[in-house]
Specification:
Blueprint lengths: L2 H21 L3 H12 L2 H22 L6 H18 L8 H10 L18 H18 L3 H9 L5 H31 L1
C-alpha cells in the first residue's frame, strides 16, 4: 500500500470516528465506503471490522451503565447464530454489491413503524436483529442503520440507545473476522 493510501485510510478512520462520536451514526458507513474505494473488498471488510470493533467496544465501555445487557445478550444470540450458519459459506462480495448494500440499508429507517413494528427490548426482535445485522455486517461491512431500526423504536432512552447500539455493533464486526478467516480456509480445501 502506498503512502498516499495509508494516509487516506488513517484520515478516513479519524473522520469516521469523529462523525460517529458527534452524531452517533454514519461514521462506519463512511469508513467502509472509503476503504472499499482504496482496498480490495476482503481487506476493506477486515480493516473496517477491526476499526469498528475497537470504536464500538470503547463507546460501549464509556456508556456501560446505560447498556441494556439483557437485550445485548439476545442480540448476541442472533449474531452468533448467523456467524455459525455463515461460517459454512465462502462468500466474497464485489465492490458493486458492497456499495449497493450500503446504499439500500439506510432506506430501512424510512419504513413506517406500522409495517415493521420492531423493538429491541423484545427478546425475539433482539435475536432477529442480531441475526440480520450480522448478516449485513458480513455481506457488506455495515449494519448500523439496521441495528438502529430495532433500537429507536423501543422504549430505551437516548443514553441506553447509544450504549446498547455500541454493544450491538461490537458484536457484528467480530463476525467479519470469523467469516473472512473460515470462509477462505474452507474454499481452498
Amino acid at each position: 500500500m502506498s503512502g498516499l493510501s495509508v494516509s487516506l485510510v488513517l484520515a478516513a478512520v479519524f473522520a469516521a470516528s469523529a462523525i460517529s462520536g458527534l452524531l452517533g451514526m454514519a461514521g462506519g458507513s463512511l469508513l467502509m465506503a472509503v476503504l472499499t474505494l482504496i482496498l480490495p473488498v476482503s481487506a476493506a471488510l477486515a480493516l473496517h471490522g477491526a476499526a469498528q470493533l475497537a470504536s464500538n467496544l470503547a463507546r460501549a465501555g464509556f456508556n456501560a451503565r446505560h447498556v441494556r445487557y439483557r437485550t445485548v445478550g439476545w442480540f448476541g444470540f442472533g449474531a452468533f447464530g448467523s456467524m455459525a450458519l455463515l461460517s459454512f459459506v465462502a462468500f466474497q462480495p464485489s465492490k458493486a454489491a458492497v456499495f449497493i448494500g450500503m446504499g439500500l440499508l439506510p432506506i430501512l429507517v424510512w419504513l413506517p413503524p406500522r409495517l415493521i413494528p420492531l423493538d429491541a427490548a423484545r427478546p425475539t426482535h433482539a435475536v432477529a436483529g442480531g441475526f440480520l445485522a450480522t448478516v449485513m455486517a458480513l455481506a457488506v461491512g455495515v449494519s448500523g442503520p439496521l441495528s438502529e431500526l430495532f433500537l429507536v423504536r423501543s422504549s430505551l432512552n437516548r443514553h441506553e440507545v447509544i450504549g446498547t447500539k455500541a454493544a450491538f455493533q461490537g458484536l457484528c464486526p467480530s463476525g467479519q473476522a470469523d467469516l473472512l478467516w473460515r470462509g477462505p480456509v474452507r474454499a481452498r480445501r
